Input
Amino acid sequence: MSVKKILKVKRLSEDSIIPSYANPGDAGMDLYSVENVEITPGEIKLVRTGISIELHPGFEAQIRPRSGWALKQGITVLNSPGTIDEGFRGEVKIILINHGNETVFIFKRDRIAQIVINKVESVKVEEIEELSETERGSGGFGSSGK
Output
């Protein structure tokens, strides 16, 4: 049985909406805008959610695009997935870009992105002279074919 963690959320505005899952079993919770924003083609905007969060130690939050906005309007999260570290307590803001051909209007209370909570493993970094060999080696960027 998995233990559910609690995501602590602070409203920073009376217009703030607490993140929520649209359906049981969903990986991401919807995040909402607390402002009206116009994004012209090719433009990047920082959109406020009006919330701040507190994560459990050893967890991160990833900000991801909403697939419907990406497909229909060309709106996506620019640094996808954006990472919120456990120690951050500022307002959650979403970097959106309009890859479409038309201006998109985001209104207060619109769902603009998703937030997914993930466990993070910390590692100790060790500098070495050589890496172990593998069949793939240093091949990348299409080295395995189409």
